[in-house]
Amino acid sequence: MIYPTDICIAGATGLVGHELLLLLAHLDEVRSIKAISRSPMGRIPPHVENIIMDFDSLEQRKEVLKAGVFICCLGTTIKKAGSQEAFRKVDHDYVVNFAKVAEACGAQKFLVISAMGADAESSIFYNRVKGEMESELRKLKIPQIEIFRPSLILGDRKESRTGEEIAQKLSPLLNTLMVGPLKKYRAIKANTIARAMAIATLNFHPGFHVYESDHIQRIADQK
Fold this sequence. Notes:
By secondary structure, the chain is of the alpha/beta class. It is built from seven helices and nine strands, in the order E-H-E-E-E-H-H-E-H-E-E-H-E-H-E-H.
């Protein structure tokens, strides 16, 4: 990677994206950050430019998004989106379109949050959408693509997710039981994922890389 680095990030208002934005904004290696959102983000760190746009118009406005590194933290739930079709639009279409803009802009790196169990052949709709999104990214000519597949993400969300709240309370016990090959299923903190992604942003090793929860934790634990 050639420093200083220019970054374009989508999804910086989310649980992981917000943590990541704060980390990146304080790195000396990062020269500028363009944070895309559909509405004003409010208070943001210095050196961050908040670009307001509809994600349906990414292609038309790609000239203002140019950066060496593109990071996608977009994600929703079927419940919040309102339907499977609306969920797919965010977690597949918007992500893939953002990556295509990165390719058109000559980005050297694209990082994205996917999910544990992503599989284009899965019978589970959520996992299948994530897997299909990853499959589309494999077709792009971006030198380095990094896929982060966390298990349950721990952190304080703005919206209530009852099932996740229960799982978060049980996660300390469950994590101790997940050893060996089961480590990749351990719940992981949002700020740990953000730290791993910040580290990965500054490391250039070409190729298509997939990191599951246990690997994400190892990256974040680097000194």
